[in-house]
Amino acid sequence: MKKFIFTILALLIILSFPIDYGLAWGPATHTYIVRKLDKRPGLVNAQKMYGSIAPDIFSYIYRVPDRKFLNQQMHHEFMGVLTAAAATDQKNLKAFALGFISHNDVWGADYLARNEQGYVNLKADQLIYKVLKGNPEQFSEELKGTLRALIALDYQEARDLGCIAVEYGVDLLVRRYSDPEIGARLILATTLRDPEIPHLLASVYGYKEEAAKTIIEAEVEFKKIMADYGKDLLMDERSAIEAVAEQIAEIAPKALCIDLPEKDKLIRIGIELISGAMNVCRTDYSQSISATVEAIRKNIEKADADLNLPDNFE
Questions:
Q1: What are the C-alpha distances in Å from 185 to residues 42, 233, 293?
Q2: What's the structural domain count of the chain?
Q3: Residue 130 burial by CB count (10 A; 0-12/13-18/19+): exposed, middle or buried?
Q4: Is the pTM of this model over 0.85?
């Protein structure tokens, strides 16, 4: 029994390590959303794509000082990036900033996905119900037992786990149906990211010298993680799911400096959840993304009217 409980806790650690519970859409979906907002090709669009994922730097880079504070700031105090970029008069930084503000947790993509009636929350609930109440042969007893144990502790823990699966699952659906080249676009965005971007972020969020240094170093590491994730999305679908689950299981023990048991079992459960999320989201994820794009467009237009933004998505 103790071993089973520890395995559940280890699963939570592994699945929550690279992704904060505050995250709503995955990197591929954020990239796709900003491309729908602005389909122009070229370097400027690559900066917007990178901007759309950059607020999640500290959702992926955990073991740094002030991580939670910096993560919250990037999701809630986001307009300072646009102001700072406008002051530089550099086109790439302005483009990055426009992508950055599309992501936010006040009126942007994250808020629209993860508020109480947001798509990701609702789909996580559906996934949990389907695992526990659906076809008894569709999901393993390993997964069912894990979810039941989490629900016994706190339903929100199970829901958070479901949300993580939905985030990954929608990314893979975007890759399957909406944009098969989304992995290559993530790689392009990280490769072409303007070298001044980490310094721009440090100037906005580096409230002390140590924080500025942390931001610059974390952004470099984040860029590599996103490039690797893009490579995962270039694989065939089954391999991509397995690669994501295995990568998480590899990173977590090193980052947390502890030994986590039954790695193979944890990977199996992760694969099963992501696959289940894809089935739950397959028929309506595209409509949700389209609604998100239109809502963000309206909010950016409102911000433009209020603040006279230096550029727009048209």
A1: 11, 10, 18
A2: 1
A3: middle
A4: yes
